[in-house]
Amino acid sequence: MKFIDPHIHMTSRTTNDYEAMSKAGIVAIIEPAFWLGQPRTEVGSFKDYFSSIVGWEAFRASQFGIKHYCTIGLNSKEANNESLAEEVMELLPLFALKDNVVAIGEIGYDDQTAAEDKYFRVQIELAKELELPILVHTPHRDKKRGTLRSMDVLEEHGIDPSTVIIDHNNEETVESVLERGYWTAFTIYPNTKMGSERMVAVVEKYGSNKIFIDSSADWGVSDPLSVPKTAQLMLDKGITSEIVQAVCYQNALEAYAQSGNMKESDWSDGVHFDQSILYGGNSVLRGQPPKKSDDSNII
Amino acid sequence: MRLSELIKEYCLNELKDEKIKSWLDQKLHSIKTDKDFFISFALINKKIPRGHLQLSLSQLQIIQLKYPEFNIENWTLDQLCRFSLLIYYPLLSVESLTKLISVADTREQISIFKSIPYLENASYFAPIVVNGIRTNIVDVFDAIALKNPYPASYFSQDEWNQMILKAVFMERPIYQIKDIDQRKNEKLAHILFDYARERWAASRRVTPELWRMISGYITEKLFVEMIKKMAEGNAQDQKAMLKLIQESNLDAAQQWLNSQSTQIEPISWDQIGSDFWHNNQALQNASKA
Ligand SMILES: [Zn+2]
After folding, report:
1. Interchain contact, A277 vs B284, CB within 8 Å
2. In terms of CA atoms, which chain A residue is nearest residue B142?
3. How far is A177 from chain B (nearest CA, A)?
4. Which residue of B has its CA nearest to A131?
5. Tens-digit pLDDT profile for residues B215-226
6. What is the tens place of the pLDDT at every residue in B138-187?
7. What are the structural domains, with CATH classification, of chain A?
8. Is pTM, for the whole model, over 0.90?
């Protein structure tokens, strides 16, 4: 079975992860712009980060046969540094138009402050202008209220729910998010919060319509194989392969294909990085695994 | 006709959608600020199809005749449209281009590096292009190093040597580098021979194209070392080493050559490079299948 992990922060992951993901059947991934675990203090840090997820990381993924996309946005935590946020807003349109960008995100609320609200709205307008889907990060604290408020604000701005992915849902939020017509994503966290077992129960209850799962693996304790592992658990529990396919591949594809930048043909014949052959694949040395990146830093 | 005019005409001609065509036409003439320039440049991703150009034979002949350096067959439509924006923008400064590259994705960087040699103030951008060679993204590296006249024209010897060494290291097709023979130099030959020793020590092969850049600079000592390795090499390695020996004025090389009984088939360096490259591509495709 083929999988898409529509939310994973690969800049914090190793090539071992890429290898394991590829082996487990992950063919495409989406890397939402997020914070790095500690706040950035200069706009240049954002620029280089955005630059790496529209270029370098996509190249890195391609070496493992994985197609990489990203979303561009200012996350809610860092929206609270208003002078910096203003500078980031200037950068966003430049990056949001790039080749592998499939949404504005992840945006939304963290502490639900006024600054967060301000930049959430600014970025909703940007998505509207650029005709891009929106990826909404729902807060970890006061989740239910934050989720409802996010949807209210989106609708206030005239956004069509079918172009929005509400992420990090749980049993408390799923019903209202589905009911209002949004793509409803679940992050499968190891140990805490949503685990694979709970996810199986959600799918048993709500089916597969508009629901998909992701790992949100990042620099913290997390599992880049959450999607294939949960898929396996679903199959073991007797959920049909059609439903598993919808939740672990097809729905995410449909949601983000609305950007015009993501399509199955991007990976169905293998992932080629633009026009040339993968570096290292044409090794003079037979049977050497591809050399990965850094060792080519001569200059 | 100036290259900029010709490129504009070709771009507009390729664009079938009238709205997009007039968007580009209007942008080419109206852009006055960096901000407008950056956004327009970024919008190419969304607006312009990525396919190959559908040139008529006469279009192809015109541009080949007038600008033989400009190999239009290497350009896709989106790349060519970015080039037209770059060549039309009257104020393109080093500062603006540096900023543009810092926010560019891979396709955009490729377009930029392919375009720079044809800009009026091309010489200003040497530090940008030298810095571009530091990339780890192969396609970006290739856009600078392969089929691009810029490095041979503007790189210092050390910069040139760094690029060649990196190209060898990254296993790029050396024969596609412009003016590879004209910019050979003794320092490079020694750097590459050292590199070969490192590879041999690790029981690894070197590309037969390496000998192309060492040819003319081989010393007695290096010659002896190379001959020892010759027996271990495959037919491609041996062809390249033989060619180096044939080109050498070294007494030892000539004596060695005279002692050989077999006839040596003439072959060009480009042919050696292209055979090696295509052979590797085929092997790689076979291993993927
Ligand atoms: Zn995230």
Report:
1. yes
2. A276
3. 31
4. B46
5. 999 999 999 999
6. 999 999 999 999 999 999 999 999 999 999 999 999 999 999 999 999 99
7. 3-268 (3.20.20.140)
8. no
